[in-house]
Amino acid sequence: MRLVILPNSDDVAEFACDLFVRQLKDKPKSILGLATGSSPTSTYKKLIGRQAAGEVSFADATSFNLDEYVGLSGDHTQSYRYFMNENLFDHIDIDKQNTFVPNGDAANPNDECDRYEELISLMGGIDLQLLGIGINGHIGFNEPLSSLSSRTRVKTLTKSTIEANSRFFGEGERQPTDSMTMGIGTILDAKQVVMLATGSHKSEAVRGCVEGPVTASCPASALQMHEHAIVVVDEDAAADLSMKDYAIWAETRHQALEQL
Ligand code: F6R
């Protein structure tokens, strides 16, 4: 696992943006795995800027989002399809036909999950997967106790996740309690994974992910098993790491060795 500790959240976003730009330059037909929530929004803003400046194009890319709420259609303002259109797709040159998010109002959510999982593999698998991390260590909506080899499926949210995400819902607005999410096995199949975490409220989850045992109690710890996982955090999110000094030094060496 490559652990990158940067001074602040803007540096984290810049790092992730550079990674996606490089991916698309190397392989314009990349299959991108995308996330919603607070963690990726600055990265998306930067990608929109880079595309407007002509530095990168999404014209030949395809995207798969991690998850969606069961029961919300794509035009619902709290759906993740809506979030993606608003925060990225409406502002870049990607063909919307090539952007996939599980269909939240599918008649049969279980069938929809199977279809989604199949589609990812039919397209050849994800090249670069972007992730955030929940304060309880979830990735996608794989809550603690999720199987580490799970595939896309319906997952009931924990109280802590419902509470953490209630900030996005208006007063009296119905908040879904179930999701469709890529599984941990689906995420681990991506060729490269980059997880972003900023802020002190994420520090405990980050420690579990990076230094804890690989356990279903902290789904993000499964990334320790991935050959090409990069965890990018700011100083606040890194505060609980005991190997922080080593990680900073190792990253300096990594960059120096890359120049050879
Ligand atoms: C979002 C997702 C979630 C979030 C996580 C962190 O598609 O899959 O795992 O990444 O809940 O959310 P934020 O970034 O809002 O703190």
Total of DSSP H or I helical runs spanning 4+ residues? 8
End-to-end Cα distance, whole Å, is: 21 Å
Please state the average pLDDT score.
Answer: 97
The ligands found in this model are: fructose -6-phosphate
Which structural class should the secondary elements be placed in? alpha/beta
Helix content: 25-40%
Tell me what portion of residues adopts beta-strand conformation: 15-25%
The topology string of helices and strands comes to EHEHEEHEHEEHEHEHEH
Can you characterise this structure?
- The structure is a single chain.
- The protein is an alpha/beta fold and 260 residues long.
- It has eight helices and ten strands.
- It has helices spanning 9-26, 41-52, 80-87, 109-122, 159-165, 184-188, 203-210, 244-259; strands at residues 2-6, 31-34, 62-65, 67-69, 99-100, 128-131, 153-156, 178-181, 192-197, 229-234.
- It has a seven-stranded parallel β-sheet with strand order 1-10-9-6-2-3-5, with helices on both faces. Strands 4-8-7 form a three-stranded antiparallel β-sheet, covered by helices on one side.
- Helix 1 packs across helix 2 (41-52).
- The protein is globular, with a radius of gyration of 17 Å.
- It starts with a strand and ends with a helix.
- The chain binds fructose -6-phosphate.
- Fructose -6-phosphate is lined by residues 35-39, 66-67, 132-134, 138-141.
